Amino acid sequence: CPNGFEAIPQLTERLVYDIPTPTIENGQVKNPYAVDSFPEQLHKPATDHNDFISITTGGLANKIADCINSGKQCR
After folding, report:
1. Which residues, in sequence order, are CB contacts of 9 under 8 Å at separation 6+?
2. DSSP letters along the chain, please?
3. Could you report the per-residue pLDDT of 45-67, keeping only the tens digit for each?
4. Is the C or the N end of the chain the one with fewer CB within 10 Å?
5. Which residue has the higher pLDDT, 48 or 68?
6. 33, 45 in Cβ contact below 8 A?
7. pLDDT of residue 38
């Protein structure tokens, strides 16, 4: 990165889906499940995306920014 570039904090989100385990009947998946509806992308999770908008304001927003900017693993 060029001099003066400020790194953008990394935000990791984990989504967990509580779905029934797929079952096979007569060689076919009886209850298939896919996160997205793009069969041409083979339902690969790498094609998924997420948007994040922070609506945190005031002191809490500053506390979060300070923690992230300190390089700590914030929780």
Report:
1. 68, 69
2. --TT--PPPP---------PPP-EETTEESS---SSS-GGGTT-GGG----------HHHHHHHHHHHHTT----
3. 666 677 778 788 778 888 888 88
4. C
5. 68
6. no
7. 73
Contact yes or no for 52/58 (Cβ under 8 A)? no
Contact present, 36 and 47 (Cβ < 8 Å): yes
What pLDDT does 26 receive? 92
Q: From residue 71, give the alpha-carbon distance in Å to each of 2, 23, 62, 64.
A: 20, 45, 15, 11
Give the tokens for residue 74: 């914030």
pLDDT tens for 4-48 read: 877 776 777 777 778 888 889 999 888 877 776 677 877 676 666
